[in-house]
Amino acid sequence: MKDIKSYIKNNKDRFIEELIDLLKIPSISADPAYKKDVIKTAETIKLSLEKVGCDKVEICETPGYPIVYGEKIIDSKLPTVLVYGHYDVQPADPIELWTSPPFEPVVKKTEIHPEGAIFARGACDDKGQMYMHVKALEYMTETNQLPCNVKFMIEGEEEVGSESLSWFVTRNQEKLANDVILISDTGMISNTQPSITTGLRGLSYVEVEVTGPNRDLHSGLYGGAVANPINILTKMIASLHDENNHITIPGFYDNVEELSKVERAEMAKAPFSLDNYKKALDIEAVYGEVGYTTNERNSIRPTLDVNGIWGGYTGEGAKTVIASKAFAKISMRLVPNQDWKEITELFKKHFETIAPKGVTVNVKPHHGGQGYVTPIDNTGYLAANKAYTKTFGVPAIPQRSGGSIPIVALFEKELKSKIILMGFGLNSDAIHSPNEHFGIFNYLKGIETIPLFYQYFTEMSSK
Amino acid sequence: MKDIKSYIKNNKDRFIEELIDLLKIPSISADPAYKKDVIKTAETIKLSLEKVGCDKVEICETPGYPIVYGEKIIDSKLPTVLVYGHYDVQPADPIELWTSPPFEPVVKKTEIHPEGAIFARGACDDKGQMYMHVKALEYMTETNQLPCNVKFMIEGEEEVGSESLSWFVTRNQEKLANDVILISDTGMISNTQPSITTGLRGLSYVEVEVTGPNRDLHSGLYGGAVANPINILTKMIASLHDENNHITIPGFYDNVEELSKVERAEMAKAPFSLDNYKKALDIEAVYGEVGYTTNERNSIRPTLDVNGIWGGYTGEGAKTVIASKAFAKISMRLVPNQDWKEITELFKKHFETIAPKGVTVNVKPHHGGQGYVTPIDNTGYLAANKAYTKTFGVPAIPQRSGGSIPIVALFEKELKSKIILMGFGLNSDAIHSPNEHFGIFNYLKGIETIPLFYQYFTEMSSK
Question: Which Gene3D superfamilies does this one have (chains A, B) (predicted)?
Answer without folding.
Answer: 3.30.70.360, Zn peptidases
